[in-house]
Amino acid sequence: xxxxxxxxxxxxxxxxxxxxxxxxxxxxxxxxxxxxxxxxxxxxxxxxxxxxxxxxxxxxxxxxxxxxxxxxxxxxxxxxxxxxxxxxxxxxxxxxxxxxxxxxxxxxxxxxxxxxxxxxxxxxxxxxxxxxxxxxxxxxxxxxxxxxxxxxxxxxxxxxxxxxxxxxxxxxxxxxxxxxxxxxxxxxxxxxxxxxxxxxxxxxxxxxxxxxxxxxxxxxxxxxxxxxxxxxxxxxxxxxxxxxxxxxxxxxxxxxxxxxxxxxxxxxxxxxxxxxxxxxxxxxxxxxxxxxxxxxxxxxxxxxxxxxxxxxxxxxxxxxxxxxxxxxxxxxxxxxxxxxxxxxxxxxxxxxxxxxxxxxxxxxxxxxxxxxxxxxxxxxxxxxxxxxxxxxxxxxxxxxxxxx
Amino acid sequence: xxxxxxxxxxxxxxxxxxxxxxxxxxxxxxxxxxxxxxxxxxxxxxxxxxxxxxxxxxxxxxxxxxxxxxxxxxxxxxxx
Lengths: 404, 80
What we know:
The structure holds 2 protein chains of 2 kinds.
Chain A: H1 2-39, H2 51-57, H3 59-94, E1 98-103, E2 108-111, H4 113-119, H5 131-134, H6 147-152, E3 156-163, E4 166-177, E5 181-191, H7 193-215, E6 219-223, E7 229-232, H8 234-240, H9 252-255, H10 258-262, H11 264-271, E8 277-284, E9 290-302, E10 305-315, H12 317-342, E11 356-357, E12 363-364, H13 366-373, H14 384-390, H15 392-403
Antiparallel strand pairs in A: 1-2, 1-5, 3-4, 4-5, 6-7, 6-10, 8-9, 9-10, 11-12
Chain B: E1 2-7, H1 15-26, H2 28-32, E2 36-42, H3 47-57, E3 61-66, E4 71-76
Parallel strand pairs in B: 1-2
Antiparallel strand pairs in B: 2-4, 3-4
């Protein structure tokens, strides 16, 4: 009887223990399944691991240890992310351009100090307000080029955008979530006002110089080291008549007069910058006419490298012709003057017979003296008074009636 | 570098993952200092997702290569 009671008690106790064991195994399986699901895998199947193996394998222990590694790795990753975030913030704040971060509704999420200086200077925070109101001062985003970022997920570039009386190059880049959904945009504003103004000034200056260049009366040419022309001005074209399009391979040697080719090295030394300075030479026009030019040659350097010469010339053909004629006239005048001078001064002349005494003391007939010392020639005739005196018989016939 | 190979072919998930995690845990120090590389040979396709993802979350490098009738999952140290 005693044994039966003891047997019943033990059987009951065994059943209770078995129930508790099965409950513990179920608990372990539930927790293991929960942890495995967290790890991203499927729950355990009964046939995969029996209860005994399950206890022996200690999956909770395995996964817990793995979580320790995962948490440690996440902590390291968080530290790196924090450092990266600090670096990005430093770059964000120190960037020499305005940076604006907006959400899908184009509300301001973040902006840097440079953007604040551009558009919000002196104002309080604008976080959460629509950027089209703050920056573009529009009530609606209609017409905003950056709306496209949210439609097609592509970057948008706007060049020379006028905002608040300043010019900007603006680039909008989508912020993608999971590589597909556009959740916001980063818009970078680069102030190019000074560049635009400098460019305008440069353009105006260039136009002024171009005007001077093209309207100069002097011929201006630039020659490369190989003798080809880099550029020439309008006056050069007009005087020489060559055409860039019809004669693209024209060189300085084609237009130099053959006489100047003879002086070869001397000419090259001037034209090719070895001995820049004043030059006078002869050129041949497209129509074969010879012209004489004078001018100055100067060297052109780019980063200390000789790249050619710049020459400014003037057509002096007409001046040379006039000078030649003038010189000839001067010679002629000098000769004439010399002759006139021979008949100048005091001439000793006989008061009676009118003979002139020369430098050697001889008395010469006045006709022969003048003929010898001037270009004058004599043709002899007789005046009425002398006819009356010498040939009165003829005088009466010739002039009597007129006298009466 | 010491290479330790585990042939867990014919095992299915999640047992495959548990075995792999157990070995990775027990060799974590050697994996981190780069003195050991673990190679798991498996023919279970689910393991090609679960093991690399878990290993990557733990901060180790993982490389899966396909062999003739199975896959080789290489785990070594180094932060991803």
